[in-house]
Amino acid sequence: MFWENILEGFLVLIVGLTGVLTVLFLFYLIIEGVNKLEYLLVENQKKKAERAKAANSIVSSENEEDLIAILTAAASVTLSGKIKIKQIRFIKSQPVSPWATLGRMNLISSHNIQKNQ
Amino acid sequence: MFENLMRFVEQMGFWSIGFPQLIMFAISGILMYLAIVKGFEPLLLLPISFGAILANLPNSGLLVAPVIEMINGEPVFREAGGLYYWISKGIKLEIFPPLIFLGIGAMTDFGPLLSNPKTFLLGAAAQLGVFAAFIFAVALGFTFKEAASIGIIGGADGPTAIYLTSKLAPHLLGPIAVAAYSYMALVPLIQPPIMKLLTTDAERKVVMELPKQVSKRVKILFPIIVMVFSILVVPPTAPLIAMLMGGNLLRESGVVERLAKMASNELINIVTFFLGTAVGITMAAESFLRLQTIFIIILGVIAFGMSTVGGVLMGKIMYKLTGGKVNPLIGSAGVSAVPMAARVSHNVGLEYNKHNYLLMHAMGPNVAGVIGSAIAAGILLAIFK
Lengths: 117, 385
Fold this sequence. Notes:
The complex is a heterodimer of chains A (117) and B (385). With 117 residues, chain A is an all-alpha fold.
């Protein structure tokens, strides 16, 4: 009876410990998988953001070339001669607050501007 | 008038106090001393020792069952029953331990475990003591159910030990709870010699890589995944795991701060007092002063020791498999006993390398141990209930 009980005890040890190890190993695999997915997701988002940034810079450089051509054409027509553009400086437009816009409109409308006859 | 006076004097408890009760008062006094002066798990040992004094005060009527009569098919209370008859229902009806787990879940940061999920295996291996102590208990003549309740002391998780014992061997609740909480407090004395014995100098000096950051999304998904899979694989573990993970979800979701605060403060504090005193009140002299109690105390040390062995050995295996990237000392933290066991790993590591901060690494197996002991309890319940 004693040895039977001990034998059964060993069986419980094997079943129990294997059970705990299996369940926690399963959690390890799942969490490892979730971590990998999360990593891929973050990397994907980063790549998307980088791609969007690169696309924006291409668009803006294309826009800049168009703008330079337009400005050069306008200057050559106005000055009616051979001209050489030495430098073009772009001033980034800042977001304008509606309060500032309203203030400027008030300032402009306060001046008495006469049309040339 | 004289007769009434005599009856009043006769009802006094003094006449019923015998030598066993005096021994129990002494034991309660020692437990109180350990809790108050030495700071050994005071949150539980103090209420337990207080309850133990109450249990041995004769004629208190605290545990008296209510007297109910059926009149016209309706139950009518003739006697309401003692206060602790009702409070003890919190254990018998499996309410208190899961509620404690709700609070623990709301307090626990599983981040270190999620950043290094390999440490799940350390928490699993550290359950060796549960099953080893089970065999020793069987060898000493305990029944399988009693042996399972004694073995769970090795899980170093008080609420789990109380939960399993209340289901399998409620008559052993007092000694098992006392052994579990006393040894949890004695982890800094029990573990270091075993850890040093099983590891080499080179292993103890291993400096581990900094843990990775874990995203909020993973932290929110974790309690849901663990709850679903644990309950699907080991259904009897449902009350403990559901509450543990529910509490953690409250914490990690970040949208119910009030509920998380309630679970980790007010609720757990109230339940801890009632759980402790309800366990203590089972420590009446006639049920506690037995040879079985001494065996349980001895088996408790074996359980703790073997759990430490299991964790450290798994740590050594991981050290070999990772080419020396894992410090085996963190394996001992797999015995649960949060956060004491993790602190022990850290302190032993510091003895050999003053710049080695193992605490965060040890917290991984430490919280994995909480899940591991709940799973172990679920498996024992599935086998023996």
